[in-house]
Every structure is written in C-alpha cells, then in structure tokens.
Amino acid sequence: MLQCSVKKRGGRNTLCVSGSLTVRYISEFRERLLKLCDQDRDIVLNVQDVTEVDLSGLQVLCSAGKSLKEQGRKMIIDSGCPDVLLKTVEDAGYMYNEFFQCQKKGGKNNA
Fold first, then answer.
1. Strand, helix or coil for residue 84
2. pLDDT tens, position by position, for the chain (111 residues)?
3. What residue segments make up the domains of the chain, in order of their start?
C-alpha cells in the first residue's frame, strides 16, 4: 500500500510518501508529484517511511527530477533517503545527484 499526503512545511508544500513506491501504486504517486510540479518552485519529498521501491518508482522520481532540473528547479528529498531507495538508485546505476538531492539517514549528503 502507498500513502501520499501534502503538508505545509516552512512555507513550502512537502509531499510525504510512505509504503510501497512500486508499479502497483505508482499512478497515485505520479499524480500527486505532478500537481506539486505545477505549483511550487522546488519540490520537497519526505520518503523516510517508504518501505519498497522498484524501477517504476525510481523512474517517476528521475523523470520529475530531470524535468525540474531542465527548468532550473530541483527536487529535494528531506529527512534522509531510506536504504531501499538508495539501493534501487545504486542497482539501476544512477548517481544520487543526477536528478534529486537526498541525504542518507544520519546526514551524509549524496547530492
């Protein structure tokens, strides 16, 4: 199951995502992310409670991040990246700073 909610933090909207960021649930995540892309300058995601990520989840993140980068904007993953996201990024052969900024839990910056 996937849960998405938008919370106002520090004057910006943050998309809080928990659960499974996989092909089965990706359409809801994609819709929420696209709405934020239309509204805010930079996109802030909180994915600390994501438990699963597959290539479809990574594809949506990278696609949105690439589009934002081309517009001079950025995607920021706050509250640290869960290990499941970091592993999916590594397994796919991506570099963390290609499409989004994130930190490992514990504060090491990967951007």
1. helix
2. 999 999 987 778 899 999 999 999 999 999 999 988 887 688 899 999 999 999 999 999 988 988 888 888 988 888 788 899 989 988 988 776 667 777 666 544 444
3. 2-104
Question: Candidates 3.40.50.150, 3.30.750.24, 3.10.105.10, 3.30.420.40; correct CATH number of 2-104?
Answer: 3.30.750.24
R_g of the chain, CA atoms, integer Å:
12
Nearest to 47 by CA among 70, 71, 65: 65
Distance CA 52, CA 19 (A): 7
Which helix (H) or strand (E) segment holds residue 5: the answer is strand 2-9
Q: Which amino acid is at 110?
A: N
Q: How many residues does the chain have?
A: 111
Cβ atoms of residues 13 and 36 within 8 Å: yes
